[in-house]
Each structure stands twice: as structure tokens, then as C-alpha cells.
Amino acid sequence: MDQVARDYNYRIMISDPINQMVYSSEGEQGVMYKDLKNILQNIDKIQSQLNEQGFAVTTNTSQNQGTSINLTGYLDGQYTVIINTPMESIQTSATLSGRFTAYVGILLIIGGGIAMYIFSKQFTKPIEEMAGAANRMSNLDFDVKIENMGEDELGRLGQSLNELSGKLEMTISELKTANNELRQDIEQKVQIDEMRTEFLSHVSHELKTPIALIQGYAEGLKDNISEDEESRNFYCDVITDEAKKMNRMVQKLLTLNQIEFGNNKVEMERFDITELISNMLASNQILLEKGGTHVEFDEKPVHVWADEFMIEEVVSNYLSNARNHVSENGTIRISYSRHGDNLRVTVYNTGKHIPEEDLDKLWVKFYKVDKARTREYGGSGVGLSIVEATMKAHGKDYGVFNVKGGVEFYFEVELDKK
Hints:
The protein is an alpha+beta fold.
């Protein structure tokens, strides 16, 4: 009993049926003894409450201890038990309890806040990833993919964004392709219009001289300017010669026009280029011998892949160019060399070098380094343009160099790998 009183700060007093004290936790000298004794003496005042509830709670105020709470009850129906505790201790306990509750509440709030932050981060992280992915997609970056998607609504949304990214990338790629094709079509149309205008301008310019000559000599014949037979025959020869030149030029222009406009498609076939060149030399033998030109060509059969008809035109133009510019009693040499998977055919002629500033201009339609000499041998200034268009259609290299003693033109064709 004493231990309980000390542990819980209680004052306990027990009296017998005649209100004689039989136990007091403080003894008769205790501070609360008199207060408890007074309660015991005035127990009749709370008798009705004791009878109804079996216990009674009262308060007591003293000068020494202040306000205290008393719990009065019966033990075994005979003994009266009074338990007293100061109000101050209850208030202290209540204060401590309030503080403890406050501390626990603060800790719970802090812990709850941390838990909510962690949970919210786990919840908002995929949303932030999807927002970042959507932002990159808006900047046309479709390489972004949302990883580690779950099976919930956010996971399905992420999967939908990935699918949307792929479809947008494909759609934009198709739009870019279509836009590029449209741009190329427009550029090609503009280029074709420019080529047509240029073609008509050049044709008009080139035909002006032969037409003027034909007109002049024809009017001379009509007006009987020259009465002797020899002069009339000369007039007729000039008209015939100019008409032939016009015909050759028109034919070459038509060929060039077909190649440049893509109407003359490249038909790849396997053939012996040595045989082709040999036949070309044989057909030009009379013209070559007439000028005292020495031809060197001693190559073994070589099979290549190309459009045989177009390559024949290239060889013809190179050979004609060499024949017209070779020095007197000079040499034309045709040779082969291998360049990777291609065969390079070189046509060399002795003679004057081409001015360096004119080398790149040789391929331009109607460009003539020596206009007087070009007209003398009937050149139109179109042959090398045909070579350029043909080699571009084949996707192969071509060119011209000034070398020791003369000029060297070349073109390449694909070697047969068998």
C-alpha cells in the first residue's frame, strides 16, 4: 500500500466502521492527515452519493496543500478508504501529457510530411517524365522514350505517348520526303524552263550564221551575180555545206536535249569496248589518213557495262574533237587504265594546250575556244556537252587535262567483273 502511494503520489487512509483510522500512508503527523480526518468526520454529507454509486469524488482546499481531489469508497462493506491526490500533480501530469501529445503530434506531422513527399515524388515522377517527353516531342525530338512503365493508368499513358512519338516521327519523315520531292520537282521544272529558254537562245544564235550564208549565196544565184559555171557551183557547194552543218548541229542538239531531259534512258548492257572503238576508228580511217594523222590503239578485248549506243556517241565526239585539233601529221592515241572497278578510256592528241581558264568551260553548250577554227571544221560546240550529259547519266567520271605535247580527254565505264 505504501509503495502504491509513493509511486502514484497518493495519500491513502483507511478507517473502520466506527471511523477510527486503521491505516494512513503519511501517519498521524502527515500534512494531509488532518484533511483526510475532516473528510472522514463529515462522511455523512456524501453518504447518499456513496450509497448510490459506491464511491464519491470531492475536492478539498487547504492552506498548506491547496486544492486536492478525494476519492472515497468502501472496502469489504466495512472499511472506509479515502485516496487523496493534489490537483497540482494532476495538472503537472496533464501538462506533461499535453506536451507529450504535442511532441508526438509534431513528429507525426513531420513524419507524415516526409512520407507524403516520398509518395508524391513516386507518383509525380512518371508525370514529370511524360511532361518532359512531350516537351521534347514538341521540339521535334522523337528519340525520347518513356521507360519503366507500369501497368496502371500512367503506364498506359506513357505507352500511348511512345506510340504517338513513333507515329509523329514517321508522319513528319513522310512530310519531309514529300516536301523534298515537291521542292525537287519545282527546281526541276524551273531548270527545264531555263534549259528550254537557253536551248532556243543558243539554237537561234548558232543558226544565224549558216542561214545568213545560205540566204546570201541563194540570192546571189537568183540574181545571177556570177555568170560562169564554176562560181555557181561554188555557191551551191557553200549552201550544201552549210545545210549539212545545220543538220548535224540540230541532230546533236536533239540528242543532248533528250539526255538532259531524261527522255533518253540509260540501258545497261555488257559489250566489248575495244571492238566498239576499233569500229569507230575504221569508219573514220579516210578522214584520219587525209590529215596525215597517226593513230595508236592496241588494246585487248575488254568487256564493260554501259549503254553501248551512248558510249559510242562519247567515243565519236572525243575522236572527232581529237581529229579536229590534232597537230599536222600528229598522233591520236587511245589507251586504257584501271581505276577501282572502272575502266578509264583516254583519248590523246598532239597539239596546242587548252588555256587553263577554258578547261572547265569546254562542257558548256556552244562554248568554243577557237571560234574561227571551230567553224572551219564544222564544229557546233555541242559534242562535249553531249559527253558530259551522257557520263552524268551513267554516274561516271570524265574530264580533260593538258599533258606533255598535247591534250588528253577521258571517260570511265564500269568493268565487267567476270
